[in-house]
Amino acid sequence: MKRFFATAIVLAFLSICLPSLAQDTKPTVPEKVSHGVKKGAKKAWHGTKKGAKAVGNKTAELATEGKAKVTDKEVDGYLAPNGRKVYVDDGDKYYWINKKGGREWVTKDQLKRKD
Questions:
Q1: Would you say 80 and 104 are in contact if contact means Cβ atoms under 8 Å apart?
Q2: What is the pLDDT of residue 65?
Q3: Is residue 67 part of a domain?
Q4: Does residue 27 lie in a domain region?
Q5: What is the mean pLDDT of the chain?
Q6: Domain span including residue 57
Q7: Least confident stretch, 1-15, 43-57, 65-79, 95-109
Q8: Residue spans of alpha helices (H) in 1-115
Q9: Using CA atoms, how far apart are residues 78 and 74, in angstroms rounded to an integer?
Q10: What SS3 state is found at 15?
Q11: For a tag site, which of 18, 89, 96, 97 has the least CB within 10 Å?
């Protein structure tokens, strides 16, 4: 019985110590590869995020323009300071739609004449 307990204690000690001895301080080849994969995945994520943001902004812009064409009137003969279409709402306020789908309010003095 003493031999059984002694063997069990030795095995328990070895099972605790041996894994800590097996670790290296130098990165192995799979770790270098995994770092490259992580870096590539990070770049891909940033590209996907950038593309999704661009698609979302364009969708918002088109949706806002569609709503403006239905609910408000387009001002003929005038353009916004950046050359975009100008709309007038029910309260006689002029605006144009930016690239993110937001309304940019302008005064009548800021409008340019179409040539």
A1: yes
A2: 92
A3: yes
A4: no
A5: 84
A6: 47-115
A7: 1-15
A8: 2-21, 29-71
A9: 9
A10: helix
A11: 18
